[in-house]
Amino acid sequence: MSFLFIAHRGASADAPDNSAQAFQLAIEQQSDLIETDVQITQDGVLVLEHDSIVDGQAVASTRLSDLRARNPHLLTAAAAIREFGDRIPFCWEIKAEGIETALVTLVRDLLSDAMWQRAEFTSFFFGTAVKLHQLAPDNQVGWLTREWDEAAVQKVAAAGLTQICPQAESVIRQPELVKTAQATGLHVRVWSVTRPDMIPDLEKANVYGGTVNWPAQARAHSQHASG
């Protein structure tokens, strides 16, 4: 299994994160997926925004038009799907509890069947990850966690999720747990890949993939890089 290079909010080292420019660059830099953050506005629009507070305003209590005045690069989830959804699969990270049904419905309705099957979902909220799995039982669904031990692996496996998503440094320190997770049927997908030179160690551990801000640099460090 080849390590998947997942563009963290797009190619966010080279363009504003979660922007159309970052997503386009992620495609050009041969990313395997794009990871993006989803929240909901006061007027019920799913938007791609990492921070819960934007320029002093809470996303959940601000209308879309006001958020766009603060962040001119702001994309709605629907706009991102329409522009990029047939070109690269997305990993949708839910940042606000309670929007699981709205997001899964939107993604499933707007994507082709082939691209829907490749859509992935994650959250730091364990209950949200469980609900996402219930809504999209055939898709890759993971729990983003700072826990990396056998108890965390068993917790995720018992819930029926398909991925456990710990920090990259934790996996590099304890690579033997990857086999433990795989024995339960889980993929290990990492976050916080802070340096390109971490890639070979993650590949050696047989990690499923990881989020990177610089997809081209990360791929250049791969043990499987051509040339």
Q: Which spans have pLDDT < 50 for at least 5 consecutive residues?
A: none
- The H-and-E topology, N to C, reads as EHEEEEHEHEHHEHEHEHHEHEH
Radius of gyration: 17 Å
Q: Total number of helical segments?
A: 11
Helical coverage, percent range? 25-40%
CATH topology: TIM Barrel
Number of domains: 1
Q: Shape, please?
A: globular
Q: What number is the mean pLDDT?
A: 97
Just give the CATH class: Alpha Beta
Largest sheet, if any? 8 strands, parallel, barrel
CATH architecture: Alpha-Beta Barrel
General description of the model:
- There is one protein chain.
- The chain has an eight-stranded parallel barrel, surrounded by four helices.
- Helix 6 (about 125-135) links the parallel strand 8 (about 120-125) and strand 9.
- The longest helix is centred in the middle third of the chain and has 11 residues, at about 100-110.
- It has helices spanning about 20-30, 65-70, 75-85, 100-110, 115, 125-135, 150-160, 170-175, 175-185, 200-205, 215-220; strands at about 5-10, 35-40, 45-50, 55, 55-60, 75, 90-95, 120-125, 140-145, 165, 185-190, 210.
- With about 230 residues, the chain is α/β, with parallel strands linked by helices.
- Helix content is about 35%, strand content about 20%.
- It has eleven helices and twelve strands.
- Helix 3 (about 75-85) runs parallel beside helix 4.
- The chain has one domain (about 5-220): TIM Barrel (Alpha-Beta Barrel).
